[in-house]
Structure formats: structure tokens, C-alpha cells
Amino acid sequence: MDNHFSNAERAEVLTQALPYIKKHTGKIVVIKYGGNAMINEQLKQQVMEDIVLLWLIGVKVVLVHGGGPEINDLMDKLGKKAEFVDGLRVTDKETVDIVQMVLAGKVNKTLVNLLEMKGGKAMGISGMDGRLIEAQIKDERLGYVGKITKVHISPVVDLLEKGYIPVVSTIGCDKQGNAYNINGDTAAAFIAGALGAQRLIMMTDIDGILRDKDDSSTIIPHLTIDEIEQLKGDGIISGGMIPKVDCCIEAIHKGVKNVVIMDGRVPHSILMELLTDEGAGTMVSEK
């Protein structure tokens, strides 16, 4: 915190956070983390600090992460060209091996290590561990891109009960032992639903849902599922935003209380969302 804050002002800030701390203590919050907030080193440190702070005040945080840019980097180094069909990455056997190495290996363990360095207690697992994410082929043209068929949530529940922050990489598997690349937003929605989470926070590269996509002052702070369908019909929610809001709706149908789409590039946006009056981004709820 800046030094120009007096001790009285700091105490005031903490006092104002108290009702929110009481509201969220003991509750499960799933955070979907990826994109720019993951690439920028300073932001990554801040996100990890925020998660550890929430964990220290008794919030049961589950971190679900992607790692697209890291996958692209390794594919470039290996001279493997990325192919896309309808905007989705074609994942052949070699590519799914790369995805598994990067997500379940490098990215997952880096995040676990960072959380531990910030004073948290974290454990990394992939969707293959304990058959957490069972999947099947989504579309033959895409190869090993998975559609989730079942979530076996007990590995995550066990870690939460033992006081860990579970850090989940989004690789799925089938009964034949094949690995699948799973969309991170979809995986987060299914995991949050299976946990009956209080909140799912989706960190993205945009402010939230905007009435005018080019004007960040037109952010819509709260939307119901019916209002989302209306905005889709009006063309206000379009393009890449549609699969994101569909994941929000999926999570709510599966039992999540609220889903928030927020800009992960804003420092401490998670704390602003959970511990202040103003919140951050757009909150989606059933009613």
C-alpha cells in the first residue's frame, strides 16, 4: 500500500472489508485464471498475493488455470505449427502431449510454487488426477479436444478439507487413457458447479460485459440469465464473448450462486470484487 496512507486510513479500509470477510469466510470461490494476467509477471505476483490473502481469511479458493500462450511458445520452439478450425485449436496426438507437458507440468507447478512463496499452502493437480475431468472427443476434426462428460470432484474436496489451495490444470481423460485438451472456462464452470461454489470468478482481458464494446464506461454491473439471452439477441453480446457467457450460464445451472467476468489486468481486481462495495466486472446470477 502507498506510504501516503495514514494508519487510520488503513484501519478504516480493513474495517470496511469486515462484512465481506464474514460473508465469504468458509465459502468456496473458484477462480479461472489465464490470458494477460498470467503473462505479465507483476500481475501474476499480485494475483497470487490476492489468492493467499483470501485463503488466510478463510475463503476456500480453487484456482483453475489455462496456459495458451505458454503452449504456443513451446510449439514454436518445437517447430510445430498451430492449426485452427472455426477458431478452435486442432489437437493431434503430439499437440496433446505438448499441452499436457505445459499445463500439468510447467504452468501448474510454477503457480503452486508462487502461492507457497507468498505464504499459502497449495497443491497442483490436473484433470487426469483422480479422473477429475472425464472427457470424450468433441469434434473429430479437432482431434484431442475434449468435451466434458463427468466431473469426479472428490480430489478437489479432499484438498480443500486438508486446508490446501487446489491448483487445477485443464487436461481431461477418457476410460481408454487418452488425454484431452479442455477449454479452461468450461472446466472452471463444471468444477465450480460440482463444488456448489459461492462464486466463480473468470479473469479475462476485458472489463466485463459492455453495452458498447469500444467504451469501457458502458460496463453492465449485473445481469440475469434472461437479460443475457436478450443481449445476445440484440447483438450486444457477440463473437468470443458468447462462449464465455455460456460458461457462466452453465455454472449457474450447475449450482454456482454468482459468476463474475472481470478484467484480470487490473491490479487486485479479485479483492475489489470480493471485499468492497463496488465489486469489479459484470456479475451474472439466475435472477
Structure description:
It is a single chain. The chain has helices at 7-24, 36-39, 41-56, 68-77, 93-117, 154-161, 184-195, 225-233, 241-253, 269-275; strands spanning 28-33, 60-65, 84-85, 88-89, 122-126, 133-137, 146-151, 165-169, 171-173, 179-181, 199-204, 222-224, 258-263, 282-285. Helix 4 packs across helix 5 (93-117) and helix 7 (184-195) packs parallel to helix 9. The model has no long low-confidence stretch (mean pLDDT 91). The strands form 4 sheets. Strands 5-8-2-1-11-13-14-12 form an 8-stranded mixed beta sheet, with helices on both faces. The radius of gyration is 19 Å and the shape is globular. It is α/β, with parallel strands linked by helices. It is built from 10 helices and 14 strands. A hairpin with an 8-residue loop joins strand 6 (133-137) and strand 7 (146-151).
